[in-house]
Amino acid sequence: MKFNKLQKNKGFTLIELMIATTLFTIIMLMGVGSLVVSSNSAKSSQKLRIAVDNVNFAMESMTRELRMGTIYTCPAIDFDGFSTVQLSNLLAARDCADGGNLIAFMPQQVGVNPPIRVAYKLNGRTDGTKTLQRCEADVTPCSDIVSKDVDVKTLKFYVVGADSSTTNVQPSVRILMTGSVNIKGNTTDFSLETIASQRSAEY
Question: Residue 107 carries which DSSP code?
Fold first, then answer.
């Protein structure tokens, strides 16, 4: 049998393979880059949500404890110089119509050894930010109740009707808290305000 024409084997040249491989690599790198960016954005959003939830929970917990407490005191004490030893001496009810950055009160007496007095206050951190702390009389140190990503810029307690012997006003505390949440350089501001009216058999 004779062949009049030689059949040529057709295929890709080396240059074509190199171009195809390069294009495929570029497309894959772009896809992986987009995936990494999306993953980082999702993680940042999750951290922001957790930090904001933390702030809301701290406010709710503080409000609930104040609502069940009695003998509110809003002393004129610089929060940086405050100690839990002083807290055990703050036993007199005192209004604070102009707002103070610290409040002390007698908590609901439950448990084996309930604290005599509890306080909420601002406290400065070493990096220049501020945190919200809960303190118990003669217990050191006070406890941070917000995460390190939260910077509490303002914390004000407006107390009215604290001394029930001189007024018929139901004791209440208006709480104002402002600040920001910083997640990887992205800052989100927040502002919260609520009122805790004392739950007492008298009212």
Answer: P
Structure tokens at 129: 């930010």
Range 60-70 burial, b when 16+ CB lie within 10 A, else e: eebbebbbbbb
Residue type (1 letter), 67: R
DSSP string, 4-33: SSPPPPP---HHHHHHHHHHHHHHHHHHHH
**Which tokens go with 196?**
């805790």
Which tokens in the block code for residue 52? 């904001």
Neighbours of 100 (CB within 10 A): 22
**Cα gap 157→146, rounded to integer Å:** 18
DSSP string over 124-140? E-TTS-EEEEEEETT-S
Whole-angstrom distance, CA of residue 13 vs CA of residue 21: 12
Instruction: Give Rg (Cα) of the chain.
Output: 31
Q: pLDDT digit of tens for each residue in the chain (203 aa)?
A: 555 555 555 666 778 778 888 888 888 887 777 777 777 777 777 888 888 889 999 999 999 999 988 888 887 655 555 666 667 677 778 888 788 888 888 888 766 666 778 889 888 889 999 999 998 887 878 899 999 999 999 999 998 888 766 667 888 899 999 999 998 888 889 999 999 988 864 54
Sheet holding 150-160, edge to edge: 96-100, 150-160, 172-183, 186-197
